[in-house]
Amino acid sequence: KNAKSALVYKFKKSITQHITQYHAVGYYANVLNVSDKYLNECVKGVLGVNAKHLIDEQLVMRSRHNLKFTDKTIKEMGYELGFSSPDYFSYFLKKHTKSSPSQVRKN
Fold it and tell me: Are 88 and 25 in contact (CB under 8 A)?
């Protein structure tokens, strides 16, 4: 159990450091020298959610923060957070918050 908790801690720390470049579970599993499947298993066991959920959660948190506290354009923000296009950034945010980036900025 402790080894799994330690791995999850390292995973979360790694997300914080690399979220603007990498959104795939596979990248983090590779860095931590474990399989995607094992990483998912550990995260699920320790936190009750899958690994991708933690990555998405971090992206949503940073997106909301940037939308509320910076004057960056939605386009700039999307690219800074590692999205391939402003449209995909908007789609991602809408999927996870039920609001468009401009709605998140207003609320």
Answer: no
